[in-house]
Amino acid sequence: MSVYLVGGPVRDLILGRATTDLDLTVAGDAVGYAKALAAHLGAQLTIHAQFGTATLMLGDGLRLDVATARRERYLHPAALPKVFPGTIEDDLFRRDFTVNAMAVRVAPRGEELLDPFDGLKDLSGGFLRVLHAESYRDDPTRIFRGARYAARYRLRFSSRDRQLIRGVLAESVLRRLSTERLFREVKLVLGEPTPEAALKVLQDRGVLRTLDPALAVGNSAVAQMRRVRHAWQRLDRLEMSSSPRRWRVYLLVFLCSISPTVRRRVGEHLGVKGPPLDALIAELRAFRFLQTQLQKQSLRSSRLRHLLDGASTDLRMLLWTSGVKRVRDRVERYLTHLAAVKPALTGRDLTRFGFPPGPKYRRMLDRLLQERLEGRLNSREDEVAFLRRHFGRPR
Ligand code: CTP
User: Fold this and answer.
1) Are both 123 and 272 inside the same structural domain?
2) pLDDT tens sequence across 109-119
3) Count of structural domains within the chain
4) Ligand 1 geometric centre to CA of 85 (Å)
């Protein structure tokens, strides 16, 4: 039985890049091999019986996927393939790009590189090349995958690949992808380290305008995506939590640069629908309102706090990086100072002072907060005096 390291990890190994996801292909019984390996390494094992694959978690986030070598057949363009057991050569032939179709034999030992499609040459030449002329038609998601690799590894589609892509786009193959599959690819694109570069590739290859005539990534969106990234780096340095769904912020930036009249349609053409789309549209509407408010010459701190408390983390990021200095400064003041301001007194203090518990507490504490934010109250004593003045003597 032979075991091979295949695909992405081989590519990353050759490029000297760190990887935490390893893929092993076994010419033989993958699940049996995975069980033996997990027992040997003391790793946590999950078996996916219906696919004949298994996953080992090796600690430190290192993940090892084990699969049986297989052959694939596509019965229709853009359909999911039918899978049969096969040789390692079959397994490499079913893959997307030459740079992903390399394997290293790891058992029996020998560390032999299998590179039947000259992936090594393409990797050093900087080319993305599919293995056969039907590849993009079989699986149009490969166009998106290619754009991601192009951006991530600074590769470019070969001239034949450009021609093949033009051909399948003209045949409207993208329309055959389900919205779920399309959206998955869009999320992966937006989840790349530099999504604007991947989007530019999709734009240059005509993919964006094929999805929707109004879909384009302009210079201002590109610039804002870069600002978003810098903002996250700052937040990370400050150890302040930031959005866990980074793709979503990039999607907001992207949609924000598109005319409000066609945003919903464009969102749908990117595979977003239902409540998630409604939420995006509502946030973009709120963005316009908040952008106007935050640009006003005078804006009280309490009002700023109120406005941004009501905005989502993603929306605050959109405002912070929108490129208007006054807005940026105000969001920063909120994040670094105003968001954490609170009165020294609590509901428990109000009870201790003898105020009868009830909805009035909310009003009292809100007033205290407001006065604090405006800088009119600076200590606990100030707050007690304020309460006496405005809410009368406690019981
Ligand atoms: N693959 C493919 N066509 C697809 C999806 C995957 O040919 N539509 C192949 C590719 O050869 C890829 C391998 O399956 O190398 C594993 O897929 P995936 O984990 O998505 O890709 P990686 O190359 O590991 O890329 P990434 O670093 O983005 O995870």
Assistant:
1) no
2) 777 899 999 99
3) 3
4) 18
